[in-house]
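discrete fold record:
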Amino acid sequence: MVNNKEIIKVRRRLAILRKKLEGGDNVSTDQINKINNKFKSYRKLLRPNEKDELLTIVNQEGRFTNLKAPRWLCHLLDLRHMCVHVLLTWYNKSLISFFVLQVRSWNKADFPGCVDISVGGHVVGPINTDPIDSAYREMEEEMGISRQYLANGRLIHVGAYQSSERNSEINFYNTEWREIYTGEIKQDGLNAINFKDKEVAGLYLCPEYNAKHLVNQMILPIASGLQFSLPQYFNNKPACFNNFQG
């Protein structure tokens, strides 16, 4: 049985490691393996409900390194990794554009029950995996729809940025390089949405002309992904759509 004093000592050691490793810029594969073996017995206490997937560490420019670490360890040690964020839009009969946003499951380890981007997830797989492949995969896993339900049959890259979140109460130190994509979902795609992996509790349709106010209001709980990726979408939308050729 682990007591409170032991947990406090573990957290102190982790704080020293986070500072030393500098987001993954100052770490080797051997070090990651040794740290993993040393702290894995505390994993369920420090990061419960965390998945086992291996994440590739990226540098400050969002380029893949040759290093991988378990997801729970990335979130304990603040190791920088890549995610994909997808913002889906839909036009109704009045030609008003809506964002098709998700409400996160209440069982999620972070931001449960919050309104979030349409689709999001970590980039997993071989080093140098194309992030857009992860975006399509996450779209199928979270929304149950494939690219055939998208207008023009594909997603469009909007931009990328680095985001850092820290919550010491839940031992969550999360630095992500976020690649943002957008796509217009067709009517049959909207009808086909289903939540087969149960990570999404429901949908929230927000008119695009109201979306800028969504991240500033104080009534609906908003997840970090939507809070920071939606402004990036609006800042980069003209350039991304000018470069898009259906």
